[in-house]
Amino acid sequence: MTASRPIFLSSCFTDPTGIRLRLRDRIQATIGKSKLSTEARQLIWMAEDFAAFQADSPLGDLEKTALCLEGVRQAECFVAVMTSRHGSRISVEGAGEVPTSFFEAELFEAALLGKPSFIFLLDGYEPEGRLAGLLKVLEPSFPNMDLTPRSEDEILRRLDRLAEHYQRPRWLRRLLVPPRLERLVDTQVSLRHRPYDPISSPPPLRFLETLSDPAVGRPDLGKVEALLDRASAEPAHQLRLTLVWFAIRALMGAPFDDPTCRDAVPLWDRAFRTWISNGAWYGLHSHFPMSCLAALGSLTDLRMSSIVTGAQRSGLPHGSLASEYYSIAKLAGHADRLLGLALEHIELAVGEAPDAAGNQFAIRGSILLQLGRTDAALNDFRAVADARREQGGPAYGEALSEFGYAMLRAGQPKRGLEKMEKGLELLQLGPPSGFQVRAMRKLALGYARCWKPVAALDLAADAYGVAEEIGAYDQMRQLGRLFAYLHKRRHPDT
């Protein structure tokens, strides 16, 4: 494990000649002219400070990467110092070396999380090769990136000022805190959403601005498949997304719209699908370039492309689009408009595959419940539960949990709690999952509404532990709101 610190410093360890980057030594040295103060230095996350990154560490590259990304996630801001180097490639067991470095992985995580970021180019260098290609790919996620060359002294002075900022009380540091998620999502919807025809067109948003990077080189598709296999086996959504990013970066050497790269199309399809399913639990709900919605736009382009034939060629993924718009609507101020769009997509999906045992009826039920059409929502959730009863196990448990929650919302708390408790019991027969955490969170909310505050708090705490274990950060965010709600109910005057 590594300690969390408010400032995460990312850079290559050496300069292009292989000599250790002097700036890192200057940051580590905490006394003397043009050096950071000792107090300020303790606010900066640097790999050199942790045993996990020493030469004799038994950890593999992927484990080290996970620790770095956790440092980025827990930090309040991200600082990157670039030369011309892309950094040392990461090696993944079973897939070998991937065209991604530790430095790139840290940039990727900061972009994914929308961290307040400060990216400096060290004077005397120019990004080239793979680093130049990476910056072009990630540019939409760093709109304020300024690659004006800076001297070591200037970068140190800026770091010192940043550290001073984080030495202040929290109420004095609001300028560097990202806006509330709800406000951010609302702004992105206003700026980037465009009307379109749900019957025949995908949403006007794509994954990043380019999915081609010649600097990566033609990928070894066997290694890409191994990366996606490894991602499927990982229990934590954060690490799954990282591995999928490794796969996507490799595939950028074989863009899916290139007729000479047809053999890469199935892997592109799988990479997008894996990104979407895990990104949903990670909380990538919005109109930004690495969101689930953007990935759905690119996946639709791929499946409707003229170079895709046979079973791979298909139309719009209406069910997934409906689910994503539903998730965005819960965060944005344009809820009714987005829920209406979600309902259009899900009605098209149900028309194509009217199977109550699948996810389509459950998605429609959630949308209808959010729109206040409670009776229609109950009918859908009841149909899903009936269709999955014989199947039993976690799938039936999920259906019971959602049906019970709808009953709770419909004013039937006793019957609703009974179904939710039974549903959670069945879900817990399987391994920890986002569905299990969601069921625990909703049952905790049910306990709170039925004046069982101790049971609600205990279950919410357990749910948070499971969510943290599997990297279900979207559920962690919602559990944070639940904790605030429970605290307010117990201490209404605070």
TrEMBL record:
What SUPFAM superfamilies does UniProt report for this protein, alphabetically? TPR-like
InterPro entries attached to this UniProt entry: TPR-like_helical_dom_sf
UniProt-recorded name of the protein: DUF4062 domain-containing protein
Q: Provide the species name.
A: Thalassobaculum fulvum
